[in-house]
């Protein structure tokens, strides 16, 4: 009989010649079109949310690396920037910057660093931050503004996905027109309207 043995080891189980920073910056590059569209549709609000989330993720990660006595050069791998971008893309453009920063701190601290850092988190850190914000600040997280391209300043309304929960939306003809969905002229999160 053959002697079959199993080798137990932690991930990653597959190795690639590409480095972590190379992969992370490729992901950042792939997010560029959505980020650009969100900047077009929501202008300064999108820029402020993006920069706030990225900065808060970087500062929180630096703090945790310093507390755990890990080298700070791992900040350059791009993972904190990705967390900041992804979190910002899940936020409504009307959200206050304070809430966005809180979400970024929770995303990095609880969603990533508590589990041991990059590669050890069991949940997507950006979505941990989003879930926390949704639970802690439900009204702020469900208030939508139309894109700047619509030239409306104060209206709030449901997102197209939110419209579907009303059973009679199709029968009443209140669904968002497909043209508006395609061009992004709808309310929603930065990435929702820009995808």
Plain-language structure description:
- There is one protein chain.
- This protein has about 200 residues and is mainly alpha-helical.
- The protein folds into two domains: about 120 residues, no CATH class; about 40 residues, no CATH class.
- It has nine helices and no strands.
- Helix 1 crosses helix 2, helix 2 crosses helix 3 and helix 2 packs parallel to helix 4.
- The longest helix has about 50 residues.
- About 5% of the residues have low confidence.
Short description:
This protein is mainly alpha-helical and 195 residues long. The protein has helices at 20-67, 79-89, 97-109, 125-136, 138-141, 160-163, 169-172, 178-183, 190-194.
Task: Please outline the helices and strands.
Elements: H1 20-67, H2 79-89, H3 97-109, H4 125-136, H5 138-141, H6 160-163, H7 169-172, H8 178-183, H9 190-194
Helix pairs in contact: 1-2, 1-3, 2-3, 2-4, 3-4
* Number of DSSP E strands: 0
Structural class: mainly alpha
Our Rg estimate from Cα atoms comes to 20 Å
- Which parts are unreliable, with pLDDT below 50 for 5 consecutive residues or more? 152-156
Strand percentage, roughly? under 5%
Total of DSSP H or I helical runs spanning 4+ residues:
9
What is the terminal separation in angstroms? 56 Å
Number of domains: 2
Mean pLDDT value: 84
Instruction: Summarize the amount of helix as a percent range.
Output: 40-55%
Largest sheet: none
Shape designation: globular
List the helices and strands in order: HHHHHHHHH
């Amino acid at each position: 009989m053959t002697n079959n043995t199993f080798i137990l080891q932690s991930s990653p189980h597959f190795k690639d010649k590409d480095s972590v920073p190379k992969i992370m910056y490729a992901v950042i590059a792939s997010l560029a079109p959505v980020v650009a569209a969100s900047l077009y549709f929501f202008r300064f609000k999108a820029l402020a949310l993006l920069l706030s989330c990225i900065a808060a993720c970087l500062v929180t990660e630096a703090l945790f690396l310093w507390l755990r006595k890990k080298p700070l050069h791992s900040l350059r791998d791009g993972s904190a920037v990705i967390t900041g971008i992804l979190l910002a893309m899940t936020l409504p453009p009307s959200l206050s910057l304070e809430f966005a920063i809180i979400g970024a701190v929770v995303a990095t601290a609880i969603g990533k660093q508590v589990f041991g850092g990059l590669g050890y988190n069991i949940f997507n850190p950006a979505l941990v931050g989003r879930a926390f914000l949704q639970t802690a600040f439900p009204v702020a997280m469900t208030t939508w503004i139309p894109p700047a391209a619509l030239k409306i300043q104060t209206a709030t309304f449901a997102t197209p996905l939110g419209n579907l929960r009303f059973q009679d939306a199709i029968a009443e003809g209140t669904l968002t027109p497909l043209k508006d969905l395609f061009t992004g002229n709808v309310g929603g999160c930065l990435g929702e309207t820009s995808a």
